[in-house]
UniProtKB/TrEMBL annotation:
Protein name: Putative redox protein
Family matches, as InterPro entries: KH_dom-like_a/b, OsmC/Ohr_fam, OsmC/Ohrsf
Pfam families, per the entry: OsmC
Organism placement in taxonomy: Bacteria, Pseudomonadati, Bacteroidota, Sphingobacteriia, Sphingobacteriales
Amino acid sequence: MEINLIRKNDKFNFEAENSGGIKVELDANPKIGGEGKGFRPMEMLLVGLGGCSGIDVVNVLTKQKEPLDDIKINIKATRKDEEVPPIFDVINIHFNLYGALNEQKVERALALTFEKYCSVSNILGRSATINFSYTIHN
């Protein structure tokens, strides 16, 4: 895995590119001079968590032959602002799942995701409490 970053201006705006040529922009908090031209690095960690866990949930539900029509994920996090560096304290991730889904299979898919498969949650879970919840929309 390789990521390359280039600075885009004379401030804190960077463009990151993966080996497949996909790009994303990052920027600093406006408190230190960021201009809102991209995700903040800590937001990117949450994007990674949402993407990783979302992919794993979809994968497990697909293997279980569950009729998942759609998935929407919301993540809210708090940081230990009094510490340096201000790492995440609590991360709450909520899955809105759409389809005629079996609740036990959904719970199993989420448990497998956070206990076994999602490497991002495994990493972030070493320093923050990660809580997950879900709503099934039939």
